[in-house]
Amino acid sequence: MSVDFTTAFNGSITDARDAPILTLLTKTHKKKSTWCILKLVGERKYEVINHGLSQVVVDLARHSCACRQWDIRRISCKHACATIGQRHGDHFQYVVYCYKKEAYMKAYNPIFHPMTSQDLWLKSNLPPLLPPKDHKQLGRPRKKRIPSAGEAERFKLNGTKLQRHHTEIKCSICKQEGHNKRKYPNREELMSK
């Protein structure tokens, strides 16, 4: 992440930086929602046109948006913030209960009893738990590696050797392409010397 992007982002959330995460999200979505154009299409349905000319439908009764961010995260997206702001509603009423402070306090309300260290635990007469024993597979171990999915078509029908694709053979004697040392055209002269 570049420094310029980080400073620009931190500058855009200065008023909400010290707020809880839910307040921070709704304040940043409210800022983004100023670029949205709203049109009422039903009792609690809105057609929202973003400044990028993308068009979504927000249904406040069902707490859903066509961009699917509100459906997945269950926190209102920028389109939903624009529609809630148009109706002068409270943004926190449209957040699911599990994100609210009351749910957090209720989840951590029971007392978690501390545990003693392991040397003070009660001893049992059962044998200690051990990892499973090593099991050697039957048969001869595989020597040939298994080719990956992209390599499979490069193998010949018998599957043991790679085919030579797009490689030219060079002669080790004359350094020319098209033949090798065994097919060297002047091989008889070379053998007679």
Describe the structure concisely:
This protein has 193 residues and is α+β, with helices and mostly antiparallel strands. 25% of the residues lie in helices and 8% in strands.
Helices and strands in order, then pairings?
Layout: H1 3-12, H2 21-32, E1 37-40, E2 45-49, E3 55-59, E4 64-65, H3 69-73, H4 78-86, H5 101-107, H6 187-192
Antiparallel strand pairs: 1-2, 2-3, 3-4
- Separation, N- and C-terminal Cα atoms: 69 Å
Q: Would you report the number of β strands?
A: 4
- Return residue spans where pLDDT drops below 50 for at least 5 consecutive residues: none
Shape: flat
Description:
The protein is an alpha+beta fold. The chain folds into 2 domains: 3-107, no CATH class; 152-193, no CATH class. The protein has 6 helices and 4 strands, in the order H-H-E-E-E-E-H-H-H-H. It has a 4-stranded antiparallel β-sheet with strand order 1-2-3-4. Strand 1 (37-40) and strand 2 form a beta hairpin. The mean pLDDT is 78.
